[in-house]
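Expect chain and fold; see below:
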Amino acid sequence: MRKENSTNNINRETLINRCPVNFTLELIGGRWKTLILFNLQKKPLRFSELKRALPGVTEKMLTQQLRELEADNLLTRTVYAEVPPRVEYSLTDLGKSLRPVMNTIAQWGLNVMPTATSKVIANAQV
């Protein structure tokens, strides 16, 4: 956690508030958020279905990312009054509006990955 009045936090807030690209990346950034949003594009999913679709994610991290996406109004969490209780996650209209953005990013990644992958991996290991 950063202190609210730290220079680092103030700079982050300034970038988010002044730059629409940084604002968007703040909403969908993170290791798992884009994959969660991608998996919810076709239909609502339960927590366990999302966990299966994201190998390597911990329950704690998945819960955290889902809560952040819900707080940012990109997905909804629906609890059904059944025994046992059933909870489903689905995209909001705002979340659905990210589909063309994510498709464009995916296409860009497909075009660039063959030449950039070794550099990205090398930089990540430094």
